[in-house]
Amino acid sequence: MKYRETEGYKYILDEGERVRLVGYDGPNFEHKYFTVFRDTLDGCWLWGAKGYAWDGSSIPFKWLLGIFYDVEKYCRTPSLFHDIACQAMRASLIDLKYKDYFDQLYRDMMIERGMGEGQAGRRYWAVKNFGLDHCKPQPEKRGKIIEVR
């Protein structure tokens, strides 16, 4: 994955990144910066486009832990796809019933990248139990678009 650190959000993709969604039975969806699509050869994919910005894992006291080690080492990519899924739910592109699928994907991706099962399990427990409010559909927060002629 190629990304840059940035102001405002923590990271911004410098090139597109994708992950296979094994067992995902939800709908395809499209957004300017992400999409779920199926192809006949390789199955279902979640794609994050160049320019997508995200804030990484939400870990209490992450700044303090970061003094001792890279707390994002195993979860930069998993947090990208989890944040995309949460944003898709907030935008009503997919139903909240898919939250558990993406929470599990987050956990599985961290373990695949070398995080211990116990630590990945604790992070999974946190997003499963405290993340719902960040996924509920919300009205657009940006201001109204004004056109001047």
Polypeptide structure, described:
This protein has 149 residues and is α+β, with helices and mostly antiparallel strands. The chain has one domain. It contains four helices and seven strands; from the N terminus they run βββββββαααα. The strands form two sheets. The chain has a four-stranded antiparallel sheet, with helices on one face. A three-stranded antiparallel sheet has the order 1-2-7, with helices on one face. A hairpin with a 3-residue loop joins strand 4 and strand 5. Helix 2 packs antiparallel against helix 3 and helix 3 packs antiparallel against helix 4. The protein is globular and about 60 Å long. The termini are far apart.
Which term fits the overall shape?
globular
What's the number of domains? 1
- Report how far the terminal alpha carbons are from each other: 42 Å
Q: Characterize the quaternary organization of these chains.
A: single chain
Q: With helices defined by DSSP (H or I, 4 residues minimum), what is the helix count?
A: 4
Order of helices and strands: EEEEEEEHHHH
Helix content: 25-40%
Alpha carbon gyration radius: 16 Å
- The overall pLDDT average reads 86
Structural class: alpha+beta
Low-pLDDT segments? 61-67
> How much β-strand is present in the residues?
15-25%
- In total, how many beta strands? 7
Strand order of the largest sheet: 3-6-5-4
The biggest sheet, with number of strands, parallel, antiparallel or mixed sense and barrel status, is:
4 strands, antiparallel
